[in-house]
Amino acid sequence: MDFEFLSPVEDKLLAHNIMLPEQVLGRNLRIHTKQDGFPDIKDVKIAIVTLEPRLIKGESIHFRFRKHFYQLFSGNWDFVCADLGVLKAGESPEDTLFALQTLVQEMYQRNILTIVIGGEQENTLGLFRGLSKMNTFVNLTSIDPRLDFGAPGVLVSDDSYMSKIITEKPNNLKQFTNLGFQSYYVSQEELDLMQKLFFDAYRLGEITADIHESEPILRDTDILSVDFNAIKANELDFSYGNPNGFSGTEICSLMRYAGLSDRLNVLGLFDMPSTARADQLLAQMVWYVLEGFCYRVNEFPFSIHEPCTKFVVPQEKETFIFFRSEKSQRWWVEVPKGAIHNNKEETTLLPCAEKDYRMAQKGEIPSRWWKSVHRSMH
């Protein structure tokens, strides 16, 4: 395929690379350069692309990010990562969305995890369209202080990327989950819409109280979209940002869980401010994605034929069947699909946490199980 919409990395970044130790990322990536052209991606597992915002203020994101990212030391990783360069903003937003869609489709066909960095979160629509064209259904997760369905006072807006995603035809969005919304930025109508659609939303305090609770959600995610407004402003040295949000440590933990997810195909990192500290944190967040990827255990799709322990929890109206992997110690729960095959109800396996198993033992119904069942019936 001709990747003519991708520009090479700047020469001055490559010149700086030569002065770095051999163990750093900048010396071990396959990089799209003006001299050598587009890199060979036959055995590449992760591809990084930076996206220029339509209005560039100061030094561009692709230079700032790489300056910090290239000098980070790589771990004991056994996979190939490529820097495919810069995707310039198109003449119109639709041009940019189409380029992103094309990129995601091509990388998906090659089984490459795509990381898109920069620009506005509205570009999530291009990532979704790319994967939606390849998959029957898509699970989308957003780390965002808002739900992004519409403008203030408007429940569903034509200008909202999330509104476009939920109204596109055919609609291939299977599940949408928000991690870290802040209640004062979200109307009750938006929360009611989430409940009506059987989508999931977790308040910031719910996630930060136990960051590990996000792991099953990210394990079940095809696309992850991150708005930097979800991070505390003082973590970014950004005077106009949110006073509340995830810490640097917490957002990096979420990125590691994302990298660990066998299912994740696309990651978008958007709306970052132009500060040196934000650039450093961005580079470290991507580093943690790579670190998590290194420890993937290839359990998607999870099968009960794999080594696992089965736990049956009978309740008055339901019998829950949980499985714990012997390989990773992660948990899944059976969810009825609402279909009957050979006189037996079909089931699927939903990633969950040990906490869900403990809840079922106490007679409670895990909320993610309940919503998954109702989604399958609609």
Task: Describe the protein's topology.
Layout (H helix, E strand, L loop, with lengths): L5 E2 L3 H8 L11 E2 L12 E8 L9 H9 L10 E8 L5 H17 L3 E5 L6 H9 L5 E6 L17 H7 L5 E9 L6 H9 L3 E4 H6 L5 H5 L3 E5 L5 H4 L11 H13 L5 E5 L5 H19 L13 E7 L4 E7 L5 E11 L2 E9 L1 H8 L5 H10 L2
Helix pairs in contact: 2-11, 3-4, 4-5, 10-11
Question: Unreliable segments (pLDDT under 50, ≥5 consecutive)?
Answer: 339-343
What structural class do the secondary elements suggest? Answer: alpha/beta
Give the fraction of residues assigned to helices: 25-40%
- Strand composition percent: 15-25%
CATH topology of the largest domain: Arginase, Chain A
Distance from N terminus to C terminus (CA atoms, Å) equals 39 Å
Q: What overall geometry do the principal axes of the alpha carbons give? A: globular
Helix run count:
13
Which CATH class of the largest domain is shown? Alpha Beta
Mean pLDDT comes to 91
Q: What is the CATH-assigned architecture of the largest domain?
A: 3-Layer(aba) Sandwich
N-to-C order of helices and strands:
EHEEHEHEHEHEHEHHEHHEHEEEEHH
How many beta-strand segments? 14
Number of domains: 2
What composes the largest sheet?
10 strands, mixed
> In the CATH hierarchy, what is the superfamily of the largest domain?
Ureohydrolase domain
User: Which radius of gyration do the C-alpha atoms yield?
Assistant: 21 Å
